[in-house]
Design brief:
The chain is mainly α. It has one domain (2-197). It is built from 9 helices and no strands. The protein has helices at residues 2-25, 29-53, 59-84, 86-89, 94-100, 107-129, 135-147, 151-160, 168-197. Helix 2 (29-53) runs antiparallel to helix 3, helix 3 (59-84) runs antiparallel to helix 6 (107-129) and helix 6 runs antiparallel to helix 7.
Length: 198
Amino acid sequence: MNQKIGMAGSLISSISVALFAVFMLIVFNFGSFFVCIFLALGFVLMISTFAHECKPDRKAAANAALIFAAVYCVVILLVYFAQTTSVRLDRLNEQAIQIVDYSKSGLYFNYDLLGYGLMALSTFFIGLTIRANTKVDKWLKWLLILHGTFFIPCLIMPMLGIFSSGDYWAGVVALEFWCAYFIPICILSFVHFKKRTE
């Protein structure tokens, strides 16, 4: 059962990221926001399964990964639920739009980056728990750990006002790169969990 939950989480995450990449290219914002809700949920399932299977001497790292994943999930759900409901459906005044609308690079955009920074921390710590005995697990471990470096720019760039110019396509290029990096993590995680069910 545990490994099947991990497989489901990995599958949900990989499909969500792939759809996110496509929706950004075709400028379907509602779709991009909507699938990020499922990415957050799938990611928590994936990290929970890694944490469950880790050895006792690595439980501190697993617990840190779980907590960072949970906080990431809460932040992301708040951001994207707002985008798919209040921002899309309500008649907000200009000041509220500036704060809440993701496309304005305001507060909720910064919260989004903070959320993905926490996701990166989660992958770093869960990567430390993996005992890499196979080629798949070695790749997975190092992709997870290296993904942790995304924490620093996600934390620092909003403080420097780098995204205030609002260049949509520059952001798309950066996010497409992230998608190309993260999809293999999801696929290798699925393979990792599937092998443990055999």
